[in-house]
Design brief:
By secondary structure, this protein is α+β, with helices and mostly antiparallel strands. The protein is 21% helix and 34% strand. The chain has helices at residues 13-16, 104-113, 119-141, 158-161, 174-186, 202-217; strands at 17-21, 24-27, 49-52, 57-63, 86-92, 94-103, 165-168, 197-200, 225-230, 233-240, 243-249, 255-257, 264-272, 277-281, 288-294, 299-312, 320-327. Strands 7, 8, 9, 10, 11, 12, 13 and 17 form an eight-stranded mixed β-sheet that branches. Strands 3, 6, 14, 15 and 16 form a five-stranded mixed β-sheet that branches. Strand 10 and strand 11 form a beta hairpin. The longest helix is centred in the middle third of the chain and has 23 residues, at 119-141. The radius of gyration is 27 Å and the shape is globular. The two termini are 18 Å apart. The mean pLDDT is 86.
Length: 333
Protein backbone atom coordinates (compact mmCIF):
# COMPACT_ATOMS: atom_id res chain seq x y z
CA UNK A 1 0.00 0.00 0.00
CA UNK A 2 1.31 3.45 -0.92
CA UNK A 3 1.08 5.70 2.14
CA UNK A 4 2.75 8.76 0.60
CA UNK A 5 0.79 11.93 -0.05
CA UNK A 6 0.93 12.78 -3.75
CA UNK A 7 1.64 16.23 -5.11
CA UNK A 8 -1.43 18.00 -6.52
CA UNK A 9 -1.21 19.22 -10.10
CA UNK A 10 -3.39 20.69 -12.84
CA UNK A 11 -4.27 18.33 -15.68
CA UNK A 12 -5.76 18.72 -19.13
CA UNK A 13 -9.45 17.69 -19.23
CA UNK A 14 -8.49 15.50 -22.16
CA UNK A 15 -6.52 13.29 -19.76
CA UNK A 16 -9.64 12.70 -17.65
CA UNK A 17 -12.07 12.19 -20.49
CA UNK A 18 -13.13 8.72 -21.55
CA UNK A 19 -14.32 10.00 -24.92
CA UNK A 20 -14.42 13.27 -26.84
CA UNK A 21 -16.44 13.74 -29.99
CA UNK A 22 -18.84 16.11 -31.72
CA UNK A 23 -21.25 17.34 -29.06
CA UNK A 24 -19.87 15.05 -26.37
CA UNK A 25 -17.23 15.01 -23.66
CA UNK A 26 -17.63 11.91 -21.46
CA UNK A 27 -15.76 11.84 -18.15
CA UNK A 28 -15.48 9.19 -15.44
CA UNK A 29 -18.48 8.70 -13.17
CA UNK A 30 -19.35 6.13 -10.52
CA UNK A 31 -22.26 4.03 -9.38
CA UNK A 32 -24.35 5.82 -6.77
CA UNK A 33 -24.95 2.55 -4.84
CA UNK A 34 -22.24 1.45 -2.40
CA UNK A 35 -21.37 -2.24 -2.51
CA UNK A 36 -22.30 -3.45 0.96
CA UNK A 37 -22.97 -7.01 2.09
CA UNK A 38 -21.57 -6.57 5.58
CA UNK A 39 -23.12 -8.61 8.36
CA UNK A 40 -25.16 -6.55 10.80
CA UNK A 41 -27.11 -8.88 13.08
CA UNK A 42 -27.30 -12.30 14.70
CA UNK A 43 -29.84 -14.96 13.77
CA UNK A 44 -30.30 -15.76 17.45
CA UNK A 45 -31.38 -12.18 18.22
CA UNK A 46 -34.54 -12.60 16.15
CA UNK A 47 -35.58 -15.80 17.96
CA UNK A 48 -35.11 -15.05 21.67
CA UNK A 49 -37.61 -13.38 24.01
CA UNK A 50 -37.21 -9.69 24.91
CA UNK A 51 -38.54 -9.00 28.41
CA UNK A 52 -38.43 -5.80 30.52
CA UNK A 53 -35.67 -5.79 33.13
CA UNK A 54 -36.90 -5.69 36.72
CA UNK A 55 -34.10 -3.34 37.79
CA UNK A 56 -30.41 -2.54 37.31
CA UNK A 57 -29.92 -6.13 38.45
CA UNK A 58 -32.81 -7.87 36.70
CA UNK A 59 -33.93 -10.66 39.03
CA UNK A 60 -35.86 -13.88 38.45
CA UNK A 61 -36.50 -17.02 40.51
CA UNK A 62 -35.76 -20.60 39.52
CA UNK A 63 -37.49 -23.58 41.10
CA UNK A 64 -35.13 -26.53 41.41
CA UNK A 65 -37.24 -29.22 43.09
CA UNK A 66 -40.75 -30.57 43.53
CA UNK A 67 -40.64 -32.21 46.96
CA UNK A 68 -42.97 -34.63 48.69
CA UNK A 69 -45.13 -37.39 47.39
CA UNK A 70 -44.84 -40.85 48.95
CA UNK A 71 -46.72 -44.12 49.06
CA UNK A 72 -48.52 -44.91 52.32
CA UNK A 73 -50.87 -47.49 53.81
CA UNK A 74 -54.35 -46.54 52.51
CA UNK A 75 -55.85 -47.51 55.92
CA UNK A 76 -53.39 -45.33 57.78
CA UNK A 77 -52.68 -42.32 55.51
CA UNK A 78 -50.21 -39.72 56.65
CA UNK A 79 -48.11 -37.04 55.05
CA UNK A 80 -45.02 -35.00 55.79
CA UNK A 81 -45.04 -31.28 55.14
CA UNK A 82 -42.55 -30.19 52.48
CA UNK A 83 -41.46 -27.00 50.79
CA UNK A 84 -39.98 -26.30 47.39
CA UNK A 85 -36.81 -24.32 47.09
CA UNK A 86 -36.73 -21.35 44.74
CA UNK A 87 -33.41 -19.71 43.96
CA UNK A 88 -33.07 -16.01 43.00
CA UNK A 89 -30.85 -15.13 40.04
CA UNK A 90 -29.86 -11.74 38.69
CA UNK A 91 -28.34 -10.29 35.54
CA UNK A 92 -26.69 -6.84 35.42
CA UNK A 93 -28.00 -4.59 32.66
CA UNK A 94 -25.30 -3.53 30.19
CA UNK A 95 -25.09 -0.68 27.64
CA UNK A 96 -23.83 -0.46 24.06
CA UNK A 97 -23.21 2.83 22.23
CA UNK A 98 -22.04 4.15 18.89
CA UNK A 99 -21.69 7.63 17.40
CA UNK A 100 -21.45 9.29 14.02
CA UNK A 101 -20.52 12.92 13.26
CA UNK A 102 -21.43 14.83 10.11
CA UNK A 103 -19.38 17.88 9.16
CA UNK A 104 -21.48 20.81 7.94
CA UNK A 105 -19.22 21.49 4.95
CA UNK A 106 -19.17 17.87 3.75
CA UNK A 107 -22.93 17.47 4.08
CA UNK A 108 -23.57 20.76 2.29
CA UNK A 109 -21.13 19.95 -0.50
CA UNK A 110 -22.67 16.53 -0.98
CA UNK A 111 -26.11 18.09 -1.26
CA UNK A 112 -24.84 20.57 -3.84
CA UNK A 113 -23.18 17.85 -5.93
CA UNK A 114 -26.23 15.60 -5.62
CA UNK A 115 -23.89 12.65 -5.24
CA UNK A 116 -24.77 9.96 -2.72
CA UNK A 117 -27.94 11.76 -1.71
CA UNK A 118 -28.79 8.88 0.64
CA UNK A 119 -25.30 8.68 2.19
CA UNK A 120 -26.16 10.54 5.41
CA UNK A 121 -29.11 8.25 6.04
CA UNK A 122 -26.97 5.21 5.28
CA UNK A 123 -24.20 6.32 7.64
CA UNK A 124 -26.76 6.97 10.37
CA UNK A 125 -28.31 3.54 9.83
CA UNK A 126 -24.87 1.92 9.80
CA UNK A 127 -24.08 3.58 13.11
CA UNK A 128 -27.11 1.81 14.60
CA UNK A 129 -26.15 -1.40 12.82
CA UNK A 130 -22.74 -1.18 14.48
CA UNK A 131 -24.51 -1.51 17.82
CA UNK A 132 -26.53 -4.43 16.48
CA UNK A 133 -23.35 -6.13 15.28
CA UNK A 134 -21.62 -5.77 18.67
CA UNK A 135 -24.83 -6.99 20.32
CA UNK A 136 -25.05 -10.05 18.06
CA UNK A 137 -21.45 -11.05 18.74
CA UNK A 138 -21.84 -10.41 22.46
CA UNK A 139 -24.87 -12.70 22.72
CA UNK A 140 -22.55 -15.63 22.05
CA UNK A 141 -19.03 -14.41 22.80
CA UNK A 142 -19.37 -11.66 25.43
CA UNK A 143 -16.31 -11.86 27.68
CA UNK A 144 -17.86 -11.09 31.06
CA UNK A 145 -17.82 -14.02 33.48
CA UNK A 146 -20.50 -13.20 36.07
CA UNK A 147 -24.11 -12.21 35.44
CA UNK A 148 -24.81 -10.20 38.59
CA UNK A 149 -21.26 -9.12 39.58
CA UNK A 150 -19.73 -7.92 36.30
CA UNK A 151 -16.04 -8.23 35.56
CA UNK A 152 -16.22 -6.39 32.21
CA UNK A 153 -18.63 -4.04 30.43
CA UNK A 154 -19.52 -6.78 27.92
CA UNK A 155 -22.32 -9.36 28.09
CA UNK A 156 -21.79 -12.77 29.61
CA UNK A 157 -21.96 -14.73 26.34
CA UNK A 158 -24.12 -17.83 26.08
CA UNK A 159 -21.07 -20.02 25.56
CA UNK A 160 -19.93 -18.91 29.03
CA UNK A 161 -23.36 -19.07 30.68
CA UNK A 162 -24.20 -22.60 29.54
CA UNK A 163 -22.68 -25.17 31.89
CA UNK A 164 -23.99 -28.34 30.22
CA UNK A 165 -21.14 -29.05 27.81
CA UNK A 166 -20.02 -31.73 25.37
CA UNK A 167 -17.28 -32.34 22.82
CA UNK A 168 -17.24 -34.04 19.44
CA UNK A 169 -13.80 -35.51 18.81
CA UNK A 170 -11.96 -35.38 15.50
CA UNK A 171 -13.24 -38.82 14.46
CA UNK A 172 -16.60 -38.79 16.24
CA UNK A 173 -20.01 -38.44 14.56
CA UNK A 174 -21.52 -34.96 14.80
CA UNK A 175 -25.04 -36.26 14.11
CA UNK A 176 -24.77 -38.92 16.81
CA UNK A 177 -23.41 -36.36 19.31
CA UNK A 178 -26.35 -34.00 18.74
CA UNK A 179 -28.89 -36.79 19.08
CA UNK A 180 -27.24 -38.20 22.19
CA UNK A 181 -27.09 -34.84 23.96
CA UNK A 182 -30.72 -33.99 23.14
CA UNK A 183 -31.79 -37.44 24.30
CA UNK A 184 -29.95 -36.95 27.60
CA UNK A 185 -31.72 -33.62 28.13
CA UNK A 186 -35.18 -34.96 27.30
CA UNK A 187 -34.58 -38.05 29.48
CA UNK A 188 -34.30 -35.94 32.63
CA UNK A 189 -36.81 -37.02 35.27
CA UNK A 190 -36.30 -33.75 37.12
CA UNK A 191 -36.79 -31.24 34.31
CA UNK A 192 -39.35 -31.24 31.52
CA UNK A 193 -37.18 -30.17 28.60
CA UNK A 194 -37.86 -29.82 24.89
CA UNK A 195 -34.93 -28.14 23.09
CA UNK A 196 -36.07 -26.09 20.09
CA UNK A 197 -33.00 -25.45 17.89
CA UNK A 198 -29.38 -26.32 17.21
CA UNK A 199 -27.04 -23.40 16.43
CA UNK A 200 -23.74 -24.30 14.82
CA UNK A 201 -20.69 -22.53 13.43
CA UNK A 202 -21.13 -22.56 9.60
CA UNK A 203 -17.88 -24.49 9.05
CA UNK A 204 -18.97 -27.03 11.66
CA UNK A 205 -22.24 -27.21 9.72
CA UNK A 206 -20.29 -28.02 6.55
CA UNK A 207 -18.51 -30.91 8.26
CA UNK A 208 -21.82 -32.24 9.58
CA UNK A 209 -23.34 -32.16 6.08
CA UNK A 210 -20.25 -33.86 4.67
CA UNK A 211 -20.54 -36.60 7.28
CA UNK A 212 -24.11 -37.26 6.17
CA UNK A 213 -23.28 -37.09 2.45
CA UNK A 214 -20.47 -39.65 2.74
CA UNK A 215 -22.63 -41.99 4.82
CA UNK A 216 -25.56 -41.73 2.41
CA UNK A 217 -23.42 -42.28 -0.68
CA UNK A 218 -21.75 -45.31 0.90
CA UNK A 219 -25.14 -46.80 1.76
CA UNK A 220 -24.50 -46.75 5.51
CA UNK A 221 -27.48 -44.54 6.26
CA UNK A 222 -30.35 -42.63 4.69
CA UNK A 223 -30.33 -38.86 4.82
CA UNK A 224 -31.70 -37.89 8.27
CA UNK A 225 -32.28 -34.26 7.39
CA UNK A 226 -35.47 -32.55 6.34
CA UNK A 227 -35.88 -28.87 5.49
CA UNK A 228 -37.64 -26.01 7.20
CA UNK A 229 -37.70 -22.22 6.93
CA UNK A 230 -36.06 -20.53 9.90
CA UNK A 231 -35.37 -16.79 10.26
CA UNK A 232 -36.01 -16.22 6.57
CA UNK A 233 -33.76 -19.03 5.35
CA UNK A 234 -34.21 -22.71 4.57
CA UNK A 235 -32.24 -24.92 6.92
CA UNK A 236 -31.81 -28.61 7.60
CA UNK A 237 -33.63 -30.29 10.47
CA UNK A 238 -32.51 -33.33 12.45
CA UNK A 239 -34.77 -35.90 14.09
CA UNK A 240 -34.10 -36.08 17.83
CA UNK A 241 -35.83 -37.17 21.02
CA UNK A 242 -37.30 -33.65 21.08
CA UNK A 243 -38.65 -33.98 17.54
CA UNK A 244 -37.34 -32.24 14.42
CA UNK A 245 -34.91 -29.47 15.39
CA UNK A 246 -33.71 -26.82 12.92
CA UNK A 247 -29.94 -26.68 12.50
CA UNK A 248 -29.12 -22.98 12.15
CA UNK A 249 -25.69 -21.81 10.92
CA UNK A 250 -24.62 -18.98 13.24
CA UNK A 251 -21.44 -17.10 12.25
CA UNK A 252 -21.02 -15.51 15.69
CA UNK A 253 -20.46 -18.86 17.42
CA UNK A 254 -16.78 -19.09 18.25
CA UNK A 255 -14.17 -21.18 16.45
CA UNK A 256 -10.87 -21.67 18.29
CA UNK A 257 -7.64 -23.53 17.58
CA UNK A 258 -7.69 -27.00 19.13
CA UNK A 259 -5.49 -27.20 22.23
CA UNK A 260 -3.65 -30.38 21.20
CA UNK A 261 -3.74 -30.35 17.39
CA UNK A 262 -2.88 -26.93 16.00
CA UNK A 263 -4.04 -27.86 12.49
CA UNK A 264 -7.55 -28.51 13.83
CA UNK A 265 -10.20 -26.08 15.04
CA UNK A 266 -12.93 -26.47 17.65
CA UNK A 267 -16.14 -25.22 16.02
CA UNK A 268 -18.90 -24.22 18.45
CA UNK A 269 -22.36 -25.80 18.56
CA UNK A 270 -25.26 -24.98 20.89
CA UNK A 271 -28.50 -26.82 21.62
CA UNK A 272 -30.97 -24.27 22.97
CA UNK A 273 -34.38 -24.29 24.58
CA UNK A 274 -35.10 -20.88 23.09
CA UNK A 275 -38.06 -19.90 25.32
CA UNK A 276 -35.55 -20.04 28.20
CA UNK A 277 -33.14 -17.60 26.55
CA UNK A 278 -34.15 -14.01 27.32
CA UNK A 279 -32.88 -10.51 26.72
CA UNK A 280 -33.69 -8.24 29.67
CA UNK A 281 -33.98 -4.70 28.31
CA UNK A 282 -34.47 -1.23 29.76
CA UNK A 283 -36.67 1.31 27.99
CA UNK A 284 -36.78 0.22 24.36
CA UNK A 285 -36.39 -3.25 22.87
CA UNK A 286 -34.37 -1.70 20.09
CA UNK A 287 -31.83 1.14 20.07
CA UNK A 288 -32.28 4.71 21.28
CA UNK A 289 -31.13 7.40 18.83
CA UNK A 290 -30.16 10.86 20.06
CA UNK A 291 -29.21 13.95 18.04
CA UNK A 292 -26.82 16.04 20.15
CA UNK A 293 -27.11 19.15 18.02
CA UNK A 294 -24.46 21.19 16.24
CA UNK A 295 -21.28 21.69 18.24
CA UNK A 296 -18.74 24.51 18.12
CA UNK A 297 -16.93 22.94 15.16
CA UNK A 298 -20.23 22.67 13.23
CA UNK A 299 -20.43 18.89 13.62
CA UNK A 300 -23.83 17.22 13.75
CA UNK A 301 -23.48 14.43 16.32
CA UNK A 302 -25.74 11.41 16.62
CA UNK A 303 -25.46 8.77 19.36
CA UNK A 304 -27.19 5.40 19.58
CA UNK A 305 -27.51 3.42 22.81
CA UNK A 306 -28.99 0.06 23.76
CA UNK A 307 -29.62 -1.13 27.34
CA UNK A 308 -29.96 -4.78 28.28
CA UNK A 309 -28.31 -8.16 28.76
CA UNK A 310 -28.96 -11.79 27.72
CA UNK A 311 -29.57 -14.62 30.15
CA UNK A 312 -29.83 -18.36 29.55
CA UNK A 313 -32.17 -19.67 32.22
CA UNK A 314 -31.43 -23.18 33.42
CA UNK A 315 -27.84 -23.02 32.16
CA UNK A 316 -26.92 -26.46 33.54
CA UNK A 317 -29.86 -28.38 32.08
CA UNK A 318 -32.03 -26.41 29.58
CA UNK A 319 -29.25 -25.89 27.04
CA UNK A 320 -25.99 -27.50 25.94
CA UNK A 321 -22.84 -26.05 24.42
CA UNK A 322 -20.19 -28.09 22.67
CA UNK A 323 -17.28 -28.04 20.27
CA UNK A 324 -16.63 -30.02 17.11
CA UNK A 325 -12.98 -30.79 16.38
CA UNK A 326 -12.23 -30.81 12.67
CA UNK A 327 -9.44 -29.64 10.27
CA UNK A 328 -9.22 -25.87 10.03
CA UNK A 329 -11.04 -24.02 7.25
CA UNK A 330 -10.42 -20.28 7.38
CA UNK A 331 -13.50 -18.08 7.22
CA UNK A 332 -13.64 -15.43 4.50
CA UNK A 333 -12.71 -11.94 5.71
Amino acid sequence: MNNRVGVAQFVDIAAAAQFQGPGAIITDDFQKEITDVLRRTSILDGRISYVPATGDISTYYEQNTVNGGEFVDPRNPSATATSNGRTPHGVKVKALTNQVNFGHYDVTLGQQQKNFAELKAKDLNDMLNGIGLAHGKGLWRGNDTALSVPTTLNYVGLETQIKNTFTVGANASIVAAIRAKVAAMVASEKYELMPTAVYINPIGHYYMEEEVRVAVESGKMSNPFGKTVVAGIEVATIMTAAGLLPIIPEPFIKATVNATTSSNTDYGIAILTEPMVEYHYVGEKGIYLFELGTTGNLQEQYVGIKYGAPVAKGPSYAHAYGTIERPTITAVG
